Amino acid sequence: MQSNVDYAASSRPPQAAAIRKETIRRLRKGAVTAIMLLFAVAMVLPFVWMISTSFKTPGEVFAYPIQWIPAHFVWEHHLKIWTGTASFVPYYLNSLKVSLLSTAGATFLSALAAYGFTKVEFKGRDTLFLIYIAMMMIPPQVLFVPKFIMFKWMGIFNTHWALILPGMITIFGVFMMRQFFITIPKEISESAFIDGAGHMRIFTQMMLPLAKPALATLAVIDFSWHWNDFENALVFLISRELYTVPLGLQNFIMEFNVDYNGMMAAASAGILPMLALFLIGQRFIIQGLSGTAVKG
């Protein structure tokens, strides 16, 4: 009987320590969650204010305290950017053309190059890849003058091809797809090669179906880059009928520099495709990023 009492007494300190450790762990987890929630709210608030302001009257824009929900929803600002003299419809169509063609070319060419860097053996392959990756250190602004001269010579300056063709080449895309193809065992492509399949058949019928999550992730990221590209459009597009959404938004702000409601309505319209694309592709983004994690 005495031994049982001694055993129970001796077991209390470890149990108390375990409970204390578990409590500390939960407190830390709760603190981290609260901090992340605070950052998330801080990031979302400007977008909420932008959308809210697009439905307010001009007198409510700078009202204090802030009216997050307008007393009366005003739709004329949104109607103006779609049906007024500064309609966003041509800008949307131009951005969709540039973004979709650039993204389609970038995903295919990045996957094709990544396949060559991982599944095709040739001398100097790794060295060539390192040189290719090193080009990421070159600031894109340095290439504006060479691109300008080249596009003038090719006759594509002040056309959408000046944005589409360079947009099909992405170093990040090749790196990302290569990291994914590394995770695919060599035995799969080698067995198909022994059975008589060529590299193009292996790539199109075996590798691309396996790479759907990574391709979808790259497509979402690349589309957002092209949709928000302001610098290249500003340098290589002159005609107003060729403007994309970023240039159209800048042009709208310059013409209506005191119409804050209209500016917010135009900005809200500009981010709608990105929000829809992210909501549709968020599942693929998580799968693709987890599958392309850099290995040791």
UniProtKB/TrEMBL annotation:
Phylogenetic lineage: Bacteria, Bacillati, Bacillota, Bacilli, Bacillales
CDD domains reported for this sequence: TM_PBP2
Keyword Electron transport: no
Protein name, per record: L-arabinose transport system permease protein AraQ
Chain's gene name: araQ_49
Chain ranges passing through the membrane: 30-51, 98-117, 129-149, 161-181, 260-280
Bilayer disposition of the protein: Multi-pass membrane protein
Keywords per UniProt: Cell membrane, Membrane, Transmembrane, Transmembrane helix, Transport
Residue stretches making up the ABC transmembrane type-1 domain: 107-285
Compartments, record wording: Cell membrane
Entry keyword annotation includes Membrane: yes
